[in-house]
Specification:
With 85 residues, this protein is mostly beta strands. The chain has helices at residues 42-47, 60-64; strands spanning 2-7, 11-23, 29-41, 69-79. It contains two helices and four strands, in the order E-E-E-H-H-E. Strand 1 and strand 2 (11-23) form a beta hairpin.
């Protein structure tokens, strides 16, 4: 899941959540949820020499590399599904 918020001339915010599912043997499976929050102001971007043209920031994949990470965490869920015979 990916969310981009852009308040033109004020703020840029990206929220990225990814799920990874690993299905193992002997009913041992894992789901990982990775969350990454990135955020900064347009003023902070321009002070680092990035362009102030709003059209430059229409592609989230380009923006993500320019925004600092505010929060990043990984959660792990271990589970086993019982087999019915």
């Amino acid at each position: 899941m990916f969310l981009q918020l852009r308040v033109d001339g004020v703020l840029m915010r990206l929220r990225d959540t990814r799920l990874h599912c690993f299905f193992g043997e002997h009913n041992k499976s894992v789901i990982l949820r990775e969350s990454c929050w990135r955020e900064t102001t347009f003023q902070a971007l321009s002070s680092k020499g990035y362009p102030s043209d709003l059209a430059t920031y229409s592609d989230p994949s380009i923006i993500a590399d320019r925004l600092p990470i505010v929060m990043q965490k990984t959660q792990k869920l271990n589970f086993g599904v019982p087999c019915k015979k």
